[in-house]
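Backbone shape codes
____________________
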Amino acid sequence: MRVAVIGAGPSGLVTLKYLLSACDSLGCDPVEPILFESESSVGGTFAHRTYEDGELTTFSDFRPQDSDPDFLSTDRYVEYLNVYCTHFGLWEHLKLSTTVVSIRKNGNRSHIITYRQQDGPQTAEHECDAVAICTGLHVTPNIPNINGVDRVSKVFHSSEFKNRSQFGLGKTVLILGSGETAMDLGYLAMHSPIKRVLMSHRDGFLCAPKRIPDPVILPILGNKPDPNRLNVPVDSSSASLFDTAYVHRRLRDQMLLWHYYDIFIKSTLWLVGGSKYGMAQWIGGISDERYHAIFFNKSNKAMPYLSAPYRQERELSIVQRIRSSLIQVPLAETGGRHIDLAPWPTHFDEQGIVHFRSNNRPEFHRLKGQRIKPDVVIFATGYTQTFSFLSDDYPTPESLDTRSIWKSTNPSVAFIGFIRPSFGAIPPLSELQAQLWVVNLLRPALVPRPLSITDEPHYKLKMNNRSRIQYGVDHESYAYQLALDMGAATGFSQVLSRGWAYQTSKGRRNGGWYKLPLVWALGANFNTKFRLRGPWKWKGAEDVLVEELWATVERRGGFFGHVTLSGLPMAVFGCISLVLWVLEPVMNILGMLM
């Protein structure tokens, strides 16, 4: 089978890798893959549309070096992707500096890809049996229309930002947006020779720490945080047992889990930091109705500067004084500097003065009456991906009905990486998407059960119709669903036997007999957990889980890491699922009688 992949970002490269390994792993005929990339190098947006200080993660079977931190910088990640290509022999299947002009159907069985190489005026065609689209090809900065913004002397999109020098000297900088990119830019601006920084938002945000917070108990006694302690990343902190694994379908499909975590997150944030809105966040909270549609903001370096004008006043209350004397996550010092949070602009007048929407929030009343004339405006408002190279009879990401990957009427066309997790990174989910699509494409008999549409709603975020992004998913639920679909979700008895076998092969002092089951139960849905069995079973999975990811679980530490994030949810939801399993036969009988 001939398969074309469009785009050499992480999603495209990992899809190509699984196409090449399908013959050995799935027992199918060899695949003839080819990858088209318009740029002259691999890496996609991380190589060509990024900025300093980004942080990223890796795939299941090609792990970071021992010297690497938990999150790789963008430069290191692009280096990682290049080595990934070498390790898995991808280079000879890449056509770099080659732009796809169009994709059209050739009858009902194949696709014709028309492409042009960068230095050649002539187009050429490639016929294939399936296509994996891993890029919009035309990624356009999303720039909302704001009247009069052209009156500002310097306006650009965050995609054009590369370093601090672009802020200028002694300037007033207005950042439009409140996502991770906006937060990163705000922090960089605060460490640049600027005059003032403002950040505009539409309906708030939830600032979450990149790592599990390490609160100080009884700071009133002079207790201090351990400066050498490096807590585990938040997106690998949750326990999967009874949260995604072994969850009764009735519990999974109800809102109880969401209600619990909404209360749990807000209560924990208030307990350790004094504000339910977010970590060290005293302003800019999301509206209550959006708790099921949150994209957590893990870039929290700018948050102390945003909160500074509001935090001091609220910390003077008796309740906050008592709370902070008993428990408190250390707060970063701002040196008297701050970032002004602002509502979304309505327009810029003839003098270039910005006017903000009246949202009746504290930030509006604080800025009301001030004449603010920005020198620099940066749109940190994301991107719009267009698929002008697809003919009209092809699906688009919005029309997909099977795991947000393909349309059931045309499974030969896949869209890999077109989801956005509420928490966690896209590349690991792209890897799972690629695994499922390749299995369904080449060996559908290995998919253990039909991919039911009834399994879709539980992992999708409930976005309102006004939201620009309509493809949000819960990372953990979505990852586990894809693993179930492939038959790659290991059961309790299976992981016990694998742990014992690993212990026997590695020696009794290794501890594999308990480490492997505990990583399976207490760890987040690391992709490597789903390489123990199933069509993409990998012999190195046990080593990664026992030696590398065990350390991640172990690092949680303490009451907040092991009790609140693991023990309490497992106890609550485990009991509920157990009761539902016991009562289900009775409920089924009653349903038949009614």
User: Anything to note?
Assistant: The two ends are 52 Å apart (CA to CA). The chain has a mean pLDDT of 88. Residues 558-593 form the longest helix (36 residues).
